[in-house]
């Protein structure tokens, strides 16, 4: 469904994207994981036809993102990291204008259904500027779903949301996947990537340093992690092991206050880059 | 009709702003000041071409008001929505042609320019007995709104910040308002300034708007304005096609 080959993008002297390549299958939830400034948003902007790359090729559903942006825009929905709702319009007006721009049929019925699903129907006549941050994020997702897109781009969809609303959002994303949509997600929340993604790509300083299913990536570095919090230095040291027994063996040999736990995607990132994601 | 939602969005916002206290007054403040100071004050002592100064001033104020209102709204709206509010992304990522985006925005600018100009026209009918609408007047008014809304679109697309938009206003819009025939005939401009004045489109709008019929000079002005309008629309289209965040 999505194919990216050797993508490069510079901003003045900074290389935001440094030759990344990957493919995403139809119906898959693919997560691009990495710290702020890794190049996640730039990748989304290029794939959604908002930014032109300096080099490389991208195809979505067989259409060239650079040469055929008009075709791409017909079947994608985007939740951007930065809120781009019209603050001077009401909740309903935001969806109505978007629906008209995307030539959505049965627009009024679809708006009502989506607003009810997001718990925003009661606020339909409220100006967006009067909504809470969480409500605005939900409205952004409702807007992206309005045109029933084949591919959904979610750039840090749950940023700033409280855990309860975040879980509600995850349910909606899972429902979209069950409907056959392909979902491209960027996040720096490890638990979000692990809860939602079929495969993840780990991005660091514009380079894709790992690609695979979360379980495969964790297995590649060792499924069990021994963690040691160094009080004086204020940092954490990690060791990864293939089995729990190997981890226990290591802990026994070292007379230190150690924690043994299952490896997560952040451990994979630390192992590969020596840095933390957040 | 792909441009319709683009226009509708601007009109909903325009309607909401109109209902806010002070918006209309602030938009009309400058032309009202010029009308009172130059028209009713100094103008009582002046005659131009055997007619009262007021009958000379009112068409000029109509041209100037249509220019500032068409230009300012679109330049600010595009610039702020592109760089700060990011709502421009919604239009840009919609499956509509680039022309549809410009047409919708320019039509919105035209409606705002025509609305403000219609208030000055009403003042003209109330205060000036020999004021009337001719065919060149109407053509000049529509062309002014189209041309300056297109200029607003270009400036909104190309300027790198809100301050830069204000700079364009100070270097182009403000001098045009004073030197291009709004307050006194272009013939009275100092000789060395004339080539510059004839580069500014408002000069041709002021020539056309005061004509009673389409004579040779009206026709030349009309064609120059068409040229400027097409050129600015084309530059706006090009800026949109090359757009990349």
Written overview of the protein:
The complex is a heterodimer of chains A (278) and B (245). With 278 residues, chain A is an alpha/beta fold. Chain A contains ten helices and 13 strands. Chain B has 245 residues and is mainly α. Helices cover 74% and strands 2% of the residues of chain B. Chain B has a two-stranded antiparallel ribbon. Chain B is globular. The mean pLDDT of chain B is 91. The interface between A and B is medium-sized, with 27 and 22 residues.
Helix content of chain A: 25-40%
Instruction: Tell me the number of helical segments of chain A per DSSP (H or I, 4 or more residues long).
Output: 10
Number of strands of chain B: 2
Q: Which chains share the greatest interface?
A: A-B, 27 and 22 residues
Spatial order of strands in the largest sheet of chain A: 6-7-8-3-9-10
Quickly give the structural class of chain A.
alpha/beta
H-E string of chain B? HHEEHHHHHHHH
Instruction: Determine the oligomeric state from the structure.
Output: heterodimer
Structural class of chain B: mainly alpha
* Cross-sheet strand order for the largest sheet of chain B: 1-2
Our Rg estimate of chain B from Cα atoms comes to 18 Å
């Amino acid at each position: 469904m999505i194919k990216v080959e050797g993508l490069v993008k510079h901003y003045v002297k900074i290389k935001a994207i440094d030759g990344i390549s990957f493919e995403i299958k139809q119906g898959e939830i693919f997560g691009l994981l990495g710290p702020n400034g890794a190049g996640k948003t730039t990748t989304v902007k290029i794939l959604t036809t908002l930014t032109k790359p300096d080099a490389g090729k991208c195809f979505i559903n067989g259409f060239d993102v650079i040469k055929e942006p008009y075709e791409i825009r017909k079947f994608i929905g985007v939740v951007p990291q930065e809120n781009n709702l019209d603050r001077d319009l009401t909740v309903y007006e935001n969806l109505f204008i978007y629906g008209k721009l995307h030539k959505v049929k049965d627009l009024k019925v679809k708006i009502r259904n989506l607003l009810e699903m997001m718990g925003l129907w009661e606020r339909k006549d409220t100006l967006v500027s009067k909504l809470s941050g969480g409500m605005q994020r939900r409205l952004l997702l409702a807007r992206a779903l309005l045109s029933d897109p084949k591919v959904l781009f979610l750039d840090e969809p749950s940023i700033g949301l409280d855990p309860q609303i975040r879980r509600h959002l995850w349910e909606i994303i899972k429902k979209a996947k069950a409907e056959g949509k392909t979902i491209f997600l960027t996040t720096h929340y490890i638990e979000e990537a692990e809860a939602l993604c079929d495969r993840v790509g780990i991005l660091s300083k514009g380079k894709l340093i790992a690609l695979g299913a979360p379980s495969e990536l964790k297995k590649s570095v060792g499924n069990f992690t021994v963690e040691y919090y160094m009080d004086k230095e204020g940092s954490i040291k990690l060791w990864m092991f293939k089995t729990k027994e190997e981890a226990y063996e290591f802990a026994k040999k070292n007379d230190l206050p150690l924690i043994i736990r299952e490896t997560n995607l952040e451990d994979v990132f630390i192992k590969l880059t020596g840095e933390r994601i957040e | 009709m792909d441009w319709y939602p683009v226009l509708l969005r601007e009109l909903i916002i325009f309607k909401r702003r109109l209902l806010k206290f002070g918006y209309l007054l602030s938009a009309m403040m400058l032309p009202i000041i010029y009308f009172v100071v130059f028209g009713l004050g100094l103008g009582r002592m002046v005659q131009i071409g055997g007619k009262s100064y007021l009958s000379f001033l009112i068409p000029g104020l109509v041209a100037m008001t249509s220019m500032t209102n068409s230009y300012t709204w679109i330049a600010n709206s595009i610039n702020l929505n592109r760089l700060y509010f990011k709502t421009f992304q919604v239009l840009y990522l919609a499956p509509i042609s680039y022309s549809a985006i410009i047409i919708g925005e320019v039509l919105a600018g035209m409606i705002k320019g025509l609305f403000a100009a219609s208030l000055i026209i009403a003042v003209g009918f109330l205060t000036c007995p020999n004021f009337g609408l001719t065919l060149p007047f109407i053509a000049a008014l529509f062309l002014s709104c189209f041309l300056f809304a297109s200029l607003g679109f270009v400036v909104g697309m190309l300027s790198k910040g809100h301050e830069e938009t204000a700079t364009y206003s100070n270097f182009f819009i403000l001098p045009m308002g004073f030197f291009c025939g709004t307050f006194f005939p272009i013939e009275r401009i100092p000789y060395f300034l004339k080539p510059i004045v004839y580069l500014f489109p408002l000069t041709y709008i002021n020539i056309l708007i005061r004509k009673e019929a389409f004579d040779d000079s009206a026709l030349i002005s009309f064609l120059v304005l068409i040229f400027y309008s097409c050129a600015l629309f084309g530059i706006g289209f090009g800026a949109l096609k090359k757009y990349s965040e």
